[in-house]
Write a structure and sequence with these properties.
Structural class of chain B: mainly beta
Strand content of chain B: over 45%
Number of strands of chain A: 12
Shape of chain A: globular
Number of helices of chain A: 0
Oligomer: heterodimer
Largest sheet of chain A: 6 strands, mixed
Structural class of chain A: mainly beta
Number of helices of chain B: 0
Distance between the termini of chain A: 41 Å
Number of strands of chain B: 11
Chain lengths: 115, 114
């Protein structure tokens, strides 16, 4: 069965600090997709990234970067020089390639960035 | 880009009444619709999956007679919470999936049952 673990329930940082959000997943599929979403207080999910299991290249998008390591089944997310607007709940999610394309979410990490 | 809308964005109802939530895909055809529920400070939990024109498949522990899902067209799916009770108060989110694995979340509907 597929499972996503986000062990960090809450993280609090001061603005301009770097912060890494951890994500560990379990799946028996060889083909799968990993996602990160941001959920601000409004509740609407904001898509950040999608990565397929065959692409282990790390990705950088502005202040955001992602480190995908199949050997440790991890897909960690780093925010560099955090800002108050980054305060939100961040979810890591996993989708297997077959079946009903269910998207399974981790418990989420609540990030608070203080000025 | 593609957008999925939900209506209403929030609703308050009395215990025992039924509430219908609509999820529309505005510029793509959602062959599959997923419905999630999110309680405060918790993660999104998949409730059910529906394919257009077919009966929904419910996750374990979700009462199919209480949460009625209709997916009659490629652009509209509805979730009806029947005989709502305070414990049904939650944030309900739909996710539409179309061809080429396109997928988009709706903005969510906050249901409060008094």
């Amino acid at each position: 069965a597929q499972k996503v673990t986000q062990a960090q329930t809450e993280i609090s940082v001061v603005e301009k600090e770097d912060v890494t959000l951890d994500c560990v997943y379990e799946t028996r599929d060889t083909t799968y997709y990993l996602f990160w979403y941001k959920q601000p207080p409004s509740g609407e999910l904001v898509f950040l990234i999608r990565r397929n299991s065959f692409d282990e290249q790390n990705e950088i998008s502005g202040r955001y970067s992602w480190n995908f390591q199949k050997s440790t089944s991890s897909f960690n997310f780093t925010i560099t020089a955090s800002q108050v607007v980054d305060s939100a709940v961040y979810f890591c999610a996993l989708k297997e390639s077959g079946g009903y394309n269910k998207l399974i979410f981790g418990a989420g990490t609540r990030l608070a960035v203080h000025p | 880009g593609a957008v999925v809308s939900q209506h209403p964005s929030w609703v308050i109802c009395k215990s025992g009444t039924s509430v219908k939530i609509e999820c529309r895909s505005l510029d793509f055809q959602a062959t599959t619709m997923f419905w999630y529920r999110q309680f405060p400070k918790q993660s999104l939990m998949l409730m059910a999956t529906s394919n257009e024109g077919s009966k929904a498949t419910y996750e374990q522990g979700v009462e199919k007679d209480k949460f009625l899902i209709n997916h009659a067209s490629l652009t509209l799916s509805t979730l009806t919470v029947t005989s709502a009770h305070p414990e049904d108060s939650s944030f309900y989110i739909c996710r539409g999936q179309g061809i080429a694995d396109t997928q988009y979340f709706g903005p969510g509907t906050r249901l409060t049952v008094l």
